[in-house]
Design a protein that fits this description.
- Transfers an acetyl group from acetyl-CoA to L-homoserine, forming acetyl-L-homoserine.
- The protein is of the alpha/beta class.
- It contains 10 helices and 12 strands.
- Strands 1, 2, 3, 4, 5, 6, 7, 8, 9, 10, 11 and 12 form a 12-stranded mixed beta sheet that branches.
- It is globular, with a radius of gyration of 18 Å.
Length: 305
């Protein structure tokens, strides 16, 4: 799906070099079709990196996809240039009267905090509530998956004894779910978090379905039965070196942290990491965009409800 982005967005040059189908706004206006509108609520501190990772996975298909990048007005991002934010980002007040075919809410490095203690929690609650009637399907990633399960269904997060970091084996539970169409019975995905959710808590909610899980990493994909809410507890969008960079930052901070599991050959950080989740990542995002957004959303976007 060619992704429609501003020509000056930093991701544009990177994705073109990788042969990802990127369409600038100038070219897009010559095509007489309605593009899918996706809102990307980017809560990650390194926003440019996250933009590139997600745009890479949503590109290279026959349909146009255009994005609105959303940040929270109640949090001052210190790791992204203010010029980038002012050029490419909007806050919720600027988009709340619009409808979107899909929305992605990213993770955030705040999982050790109580949800109510996060400075943008009230704003994020407004966004999640608004998504119920203004977005066809919303994909929640990592911390956002836990936040969404907590806000929409009252499912609490549970602290882990230590950080869960690495690339873990998963299995598909609901093999007929369109979200996992084409998945192998066993696949790999990265995780990087300090908290989790309970399988027992999820099973108590009749509107939720567990779609994929891991013996080592726990619940991985949960969906609502109406397909409007997708919760993914890992980071399939991560690049090859993302876990490495996080591990190095933790070491530099003096944290007592384990080497990411199943990531470096022989678990030796001096070895180049093995990337074994790219195919799964592409299928996950493509299936969501096709079956849960494109095949479901009305042509008249104002009729989304």
């Amino acid at each position: 799906m060619p992704i429609k982005i501003p020509g000056s967005l930093p991701a544009n040059k990177i994705l073109n070099s990788e042969n990802i189908f990127v369409m600038t706004e100038k070219r897009a206006i010559t095509q007489d079709i309605r593009p899918l509108k996706i809102a990307l609520v980017n809560l990650m501190p390194t926003k440019i990196t996250t933009e590139t990772q997600l745009l890479r996975l949503l590109g290279n298909s026959p349909l146009q996809v255009e994005f609105d990048f959303i940040n929270t007005a109640t949090h001052n991002s210190k790791n992204t240039p203010s010029a980038h934010l002012s050029s490419f980002y909007k806050d919720f007040e600027m988009i709340k009267d619009q409808k979107y075919d899909g929305m992605i809410i990213t993770g955030a490095p705040v999982e050790k905090m109580e949800f109510e203690d996060v400075d943008y929690w009230d704003e994020l609650k407004k966004i999640m509530e608004w998504s119920n009637t203004n977005v066809t399907s919303t994909l929640h990633i990592c911390w956002a998956a836990q936040a969404g399960l907590y806000y929409h269904f009252g499912i609490p997060k549970i602290p882990l004894d230590k950080k869960l970091s690495g690339v873990f084996e998963h299995r598909v539970v609901r093999k007929k779910a369109m979200l996992v169409r084409g998945f192998d019975d066993v696949f790999y995905a990265p995780h990087s978090r300090y908290t989790t959710v309970s399988k027992e808590d999820i099973k108590k909610v009749s509107d939720l379905q567990i779609t994929a899980e891991s013996d080592d990493a726990g619940i991985y994909i949960v969906t609502s039965k109406d397909k409007k809410k997708i919760f993914v507890t890992g980071h399939s969008e991560y690049d090859r070196l993302t876990l490495h960079e996080e591990y190095m930052r933790d070491i530099e901070k003096g944290l007592n942290i384990d080497v990411p599991k199943n990531y470096y050959p022989n678990d030796n950080p001096k070895n180049a990491p093995v990337m074994r989740w790219r195919a799964h990542a592409n299928l996950l995002f493509t299936n969501w965009l096709n079956y849960y957004v494109y095949q479901t959303t009305p042509y008249d976007i104002t009729k989304i409800k």
